[in-house]
Amino acid sequence: MKQFYKDFIGKTINSQEQLKIQLDILKYVASFCEKNGLRYFLADGTLLGAVRHHGYIPWDDDIDIRMPRPDYEKMCELFNSKDNDGTYHLIQPSDDEAQHYFVKIIDTRTIKIEPYLNYKFGLIGIDIDVFPIDGAPSNPNEYDKYQKTIRGYNKTYMLKKKIFFRRMLTIGKDFVKNRFKAHFCPFMSFKAVARKVKQLSNQYDFEKSEYVCHIGIGDRYRFPRSAYSDYKMMQFEDTQFRIPCGYDEILTAHYGDYMKLPPVEKQITHHVNNAYWKK
């Protein structure tokens, strides 16, 4: 661990404590959204956990939500200034301390260190992930081009946030594999990349689009907007949260037969991090 971290790091937070802290963030965010008329939905492994386990997937270790683009951007405007005592803080991709191309909401009392990321502009804490749901082109060929472009920029963003030697290795691998070649932008700043993704993502009005999409680095899913036209409440641990009315279609696209458990060898966590209380 680098020397400068030691000035801020206190007691280690174990994995079970991390799960509880994340759940507390989710409860706060859900309450914030309800009070401010913002739409949110449990997403990805958190959605699957709610439907199949009524809580965390036993080997999962994070929480994801999705918000329609208009609500996502409104959240970014309001969260850090409205009725917020500072315990929780929203980090946008354009913020200096950001490490990801999507929004993180962190517990400011904590510090989380993930391998290979560059924390020279500030440490972040235990968090939940907030992803946008964007309008999408109706034409399949147009959508294929669109999602490849967004994914290429997101890949560029993440490469820029990795420590130097890891970044060089990853860039080399990408050139060798010829992946994301058309939209790999090594000379853009991460802020410029974030602005470009936001600009591209607002091309298609969520409220008027026939289809909406989830685009990350690996994700490229598109659904009829009707899948997010309403919600139902579903138990996740000790609280009920919103899930999209089209959850079956969404989970099937992501996981196939999602009620069937994967083989034991695939029941593993995909994140590696260390978490601490701040001194």
UniProtKB/TrEMBL annotation:
InterPro entries: LicD/FKTN/FKRP_NTP_transf, LPS_cholinephosphotransferase. The lineage of its organism: Bacteria, Bacillati, Bacillota, Clostridia, Eubacteriales. This is LicD family protein. Keywords: Plasmid. PANTHER family: LIPOPOLYSACCHARIDE CHOLINEPHOSPHOTRANSFERASE LICD. The keyword Coiled coil does not apply. The keyword Cell division does not apply. Residues 33-256 form the LicD/FKTN/FKRP nucleotidyltransferase domain. One of its GO terms (biological process) is glycoprotein metabolic process.
